[in-house]
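Hi R.,

Here's the chain you asked about this morning:
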Amino acid sequence: MNVNQEQLIIFKTVIECGSFSAAARQLGKVPSAVSMSIANLEIDLNLNLFQRIGREPVPTAQALTLYEKTEQLLVEMNQWKQHAAALSEGLESELNIVVVSELIHSDWTQYIALLQQEFPTLQINIFSAPQEDAMHMLVEQSAQLAVMFEREQLDSGEQFVELKREALVPVAARDFALAQQAPVSFEAILHSRQIVVASRDRRIQPELLFSKQYWRTDNHHTACSLILQGLGWGVLPLQMLNENPNLKQQLQVLDFLDFSPKFEYFVDLVWSRESKLGLAARFLINHLRNQRKSTN
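And the predicted structure, written out as tokens:
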């Protein structure tokens, strides 16, 4: 069976126009070419698609059944061609983006929507991981882009563009011992269990670690659940609390005695200089750079 796109277009047009001659006029072809194409399609399919009785061809039941599938098939064939053309221009076969766990609540999906609009056939995979693991994914090139907090020390192999600021706040359940103190001394923090969002690799020291005793998890949702149970205090995204009024009522933002209880960071889109970025990744980076130029 050797059915091509042009045959399907002619078949669809004949059914919709009701005759070979009307279909030929719409397609800019001579009637004999349309009739020949339908005849060849019938041979390829081993089916009678039209009854040639009277002045106009009448589609058979089999033809009407196939017609229902034809439009979707043509759409898929066009998408396949567009995807092949994009791949030939340097589009990635897939784009892997890792978002640091604490930033899941931030407004990053707008950039994914932009990519989908610009590259509708692109396979996009989104992962969530602690900051250290997200950086490791970039280094080993299992992710091409990462949405992460600013780093104290920049690796020579990384490159980035700033997105925005994001805040983290120390919290505890309202009946937790630290929540009863105002302000909270550093000594009290030091000797109270902390729930830390940290790398799965236990050899890596967690960031924003203050307490001598701590439990670690790889995502802030688990951390939040443990904190709500009164099992420790921890640092959570401020936006997470702002989006959930019930959570805001259950948790107390801790007032530290010796330093500000609000940790503000720049959020960056980061990539590795060693990674060969495709069309979509480069498009997003350039979009963000142009966006920054227009706002500065």
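The radius of gyration is 30 Å.

Let me know if you need anything else.
M.
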